[in-house]
Each structure stands twice: as structure tokens, then as C-alpha cells.
Write a structure and sequence with these properties.
By secondary structure, this protein is of the alpha+beta class. Helix content is 26%, strand content 35%.
């Protein structure tokens, strides 16, 4: 861990020519955030298999108003260097990140200067196939919409495959998801999800299933990704 932190400090010093030392003398030190990110990763591991351990990839650093104002002076420099540190730590520990490394800073009025919190989550990248229309019009017209991390994905036909492979209609870059993991089927007013022989299976509303009907508001989980189902009123 020390080697990663030392490289981080050296890169940061070179990038901003000592500006951080002057600005942060009595505030949150960047190296404190770096160490906290490493702890957050190590404390939130999930073993997928004997040689694969999943860790968070989306981090939010909550800062006091004083510290937030000073951090934002440096634009993306600090976030970029922290992202590099996180990637190095994940590589050295042989972890697997859920997706692209994301680091953001928010302001918390309740925090005093020099205090901060780090929150994290595993957020996989989701890529619809080129044939999937993602416009607002397509979402409004769809009888069934899948919500993944706040992004809405309409089901245009009577079925949609989900997996980590490039042939899936909805590709989710989640290490816990198989290449062809599941299929959502729509038949009239009936909506259901079916396991396609995945390694880690499916849970629907907390229950492990092979196939199951889905209702409006149902949630099913593939790997480390939770998907919420929205069914248009005329389908209910």
C-alpha cells in the first residue's frame, strides 16, 4: 500500500507544483483521501470465485464546504490521480473492479473542515445493442422498461437477452454475470425472466429462481446488478 501512496503523492506534486501543500495545510490532505479509498476497497470485497474478488468501482467523497471549495479549484487533476491510484491498488491486490473507475466529490454541510466520508458501490457498465432504441419516445412507447442504475432500457419486442457477452441485447460488464445470463420475455400481459444456464443464477425479489413471472416494480438481480421492472398501465 505504501508504494501506491508514494507514487500518488509524487504524481500529484508534479502535476500541481506544490499548490496542494499550500492550500491543504489545515484541511483534508489528498493522501488521506487516497488511503481512505484503499480501505474502502479492501473493506468491500466480494468473492466471486477462487481467483476472482469483486470490489467497488464508483466512489463518492463527501467533504465539508471548506474542503470542497478548495478541492474543486483543481478541476479533474485530483480525481484523475485518485483514479490512477485506485486502479493500481486493484491491480496489485488482484481484485476485479465492477466497471470503469469513477470518483466524484460532494459537499456535506454537516461535516467540519478536515473531516470527510467515502462511499462506494459496484456499478457495472451497461451497453445496449445497436438495434436497441434508447430514445425518450421508445421508452414511452415500450410496454416493459428495465431500470438499471437509473438508466431506463425499453424492451421493444417480445424478448430481450442480458449478459456480459457481445451478442446480448443488453450487455452488462459485471464480472458476476455470464456471457449469456438471462432472458426477459413479454407475452401479452405476461412478463417473465428466465435463466440461460448462468453460473451465478438469478434472484427475483430476493428469491433464487430459474424462471419467474415479473410484476410492475419487481426487482431481479444478476451477479451484482439489480434490475427494476416497469410495466405500462395498459399491460397490467
Amino acid at each position: 500500500m505504501a508504494g501506491v501512496l508514494q507514487r500518488f503523492e509524487q504524481r500529484l506534486e508534479n502535476a500541481v507544483t506544490g499548490a496542494f501543500t499550500r492550500v491543504f495545510r489545515s484541511s483534508v490532505q489528498p493522501v488521506e483521501i487516497a488511503a481512505a479509498l484503499q480501505r474502502e476497497i479492501d473493506n468491500n470485497t466480494k468473492v466471486l470465485s477462487r481467483d476472482r474478488t469483486l470490489v467497488p468501482n464508483d466512489f463518492t467523497v463527501e467533504l465539508s464546504p471548506h474542503d470542497h471549495e478548495r478541492l474543486t479549484q483543481f478541476g479533474s487533476t485530483l480525481a484523475n490521480e485518485l483514479s490512477t491510484l485506485v486502479r493500481e491498488h486493484i491491480s496489485e491486490q488482484r481484485y476485479t473492479a465492477a466497471g470503469e473507475i469513477l470518483i466524484s466529490f460532494t459537499q456535506d454541510e454537516a461535516l467540519h473542515t478536515g473531516r470527510f466520508h467515502v462511499n462506494s458501490r459496484a456499478a457495472a457498465d451497461v451497453t445496449p445493442s445497436p438495434s436497441q432504441a434508447m430514445t425518450d419516445t421508445a421508452i414511452r412507447r415500450a410496454s416493459v422498461v428495465l431500470d438499471i442504475g437509473g438508466l431506463r432500457h425499453p424492451i421493444a419486442g417480445n424478448r430481450l437477452t442480458i449478459g456480459r457477452g457481445s451478442t446480448a441485447d443488453l450487455k452488462i460488464d459485471d464480472p458476476g454475470i455470464s456471457r449469456n445470463h438471462a432472458e426477459v420475455r413479454v407475452s401479452g400481459a405476461s412478463v417473465s425472466v428466465h435463466d440461460l444456464g448462468s453460473t451465478n443464477g438469478i434472484t427475483v425479489d430476493g428469491r433464487r429462481v430459474t424462471d419467474a413471472p415479473l410484476a410492475n416494480g419487481s426487482q431481479f438481480r444478476l451477479g451484482n446488478t439489480t434490475i427494476t421492472v416497469s410495466i405500462a398501465e395498459e399491460q397490467l
